[in-house]
Structures are given as structure tokens and as C-alpha cells.
Amino acid sequence: MEDTLGQHISDYYGEMHKNRLSQDGSILSTESWKEKKTHGKALHDRVTKELKEHQGCRMTGHIELQRVPGNFHIGFHAYGDIVSSLEQSGVSFDNSFHVHHISFGEKANYNRMRKHFPNTGVSHPLDGFYRRPQYMEGKDNKKPKH
Description:
By secondary structure, the chain is of the alpha+beta class. It has 3 helices and 7 strands; from the N terminus they run E-E-E-H-E-E-H-E-H-E.
């Protein structure tokens, strides 16, 4: 996460989970950020296997942030060396994603706002958002099952 002053915050409160998904969308396993300890060749081999099996992932959980303007992102840029190595060996990545639900704040607060201010349009504008990178266009344009 990064605030508007450019300060990166990597020690946050919350719990995020990665559900590894099979090609048909069923959950193969779940791991938390704290459980992610694979590095180097072991990680390279694991990612290669997961890509050959056409696995995907679903992120779930919550994080608590400071109330300052900023952003958060989920990406693989911390593993650039492994991504580069895999790409050089002919592996391609499908970086499409689907936001099932994302919200800022407690669900009870949204419900209370809707009740007291019914015409304000309080919503979750990213719910249902789907994006497929431009370089993937024309390949298999089906929306993923996960």
C-alpha cells in the first residue's frame, strides 16, 4: 500500500488469503500471506506447475488502512526475476481479473447509510468489474470461471 506522500506501508493489519483454483474454479488450497514462504527455484517450479495446470486464484480477506489518501494494489512485481525467467522459457501469463466485491468500511455502516440516506447512491462501483489485458485480446475471450 502507498499513501499520497509516497510512503509504502507493507506492515498492515488484516488477513488476506489466496485461494488456489483449478481450471474449473474449485478451490485446491488456501494460504495466507503469513504462510507464503516459498522463494527461488521452489517458487519457480511451483508457479510453472500451476500455470501448466491452468490454475487461477481468488483473493479474499480484509485489510485496515490509515484514513489518508493512497492506494493499494495486488500484483506480482515483487517476483520480477521469476516472471522474467518463466517468460524467457515460453510461459505466458493471463493477468485478467474479476472483482466480485470490494468495499471500504464496515458493511453495517453501508447499510445504515442506505437506510438513512436512500437516494444518495451509496454503492460498490467495482463489484462485477472484469478486465482482460489488451495483449490477451483475441486469445480466449471467455470470462474465467473463478
